[in-house]
């Protein structure tokens, strides 16, 4: 039997990594503390009426130029090598893929993040993802970042989620909003599990949940972030609010495996129902 495709879709910062990806090395390389950089970048965005995600990308190019830092693809990729992940993340993908195969499922992993594709490309877990949808820079002739090429915010995350659902390519922007019957969609929302932690994830989490899939709000264990995740659960925007611990037999592991088992069982039940429907059509009595 052909394996049934399932998509596990993740935000990155504070969902898989313990903090923002830029905080580990990029911002310190600019000679700043992360808290100072984000405060200044957000203030600049507010003053100039710029979306925070777009504004922070511009602010990186501004500070890098002022301080003589080479903001190149290579340097951004190197910043990915020092990312610290929550417990269990690095062996999560192989483990959950094996579980899926046991139940006849083909699990695909995706990232949809307001972080930077260039940094994610350099991190140790990049090899596990079928695709990564994140912010990215445009580069000048000197190979330095000069401007945001792609920005992923609230609405952008929903667009990329729709592309996964429909089986479209990353740059299929013109046709993403065209109508497609549910039965023609590559991975229906009922077979999507979305992991997120922040405000930019809310539209995507709610969209998955409302279409019969599962959305998981994760939070840093033993932190004030738990209240935010529980509030999303209370507001009916997610199915689960769980600590970001991906080790075997921890809550995320148990919940996701249970969802996968349910997907497999429902698929098998549908096959049996179709067989019975065929009996009715073939019966000549």
Explain what this protein looks like in three dimensions:
This protein has helices at 26-29, 34-48, 52-67, 73-80, 89-102, 117-121, 154-166, 202-210, 225-234, 251-282, and strands at residues 4-10, 105-116, 131-139, 145-150, 192-196, 214-219, 240-243. The protein has ten helices and seven strands. The protein has a seven-stranded mixed β-sheet, with helices on both faces. The longest helix is centred in the C-terminal third of the chain and has 32 residues, at 251-282. It is elongated. Helix 2 (34-48) crosses helix 3 and helix 5 runs parallel beside helix 10. By secondary structure, it is α/β, with parallel strands linked by helices. A hairpin with a 5-residue loop joins strand 3 (131-139) and strand 4. The chain has one domain (4-19, 85-282): Rossmann fold (3-Layer(aba) Sandwich), CATH 3.40.50.
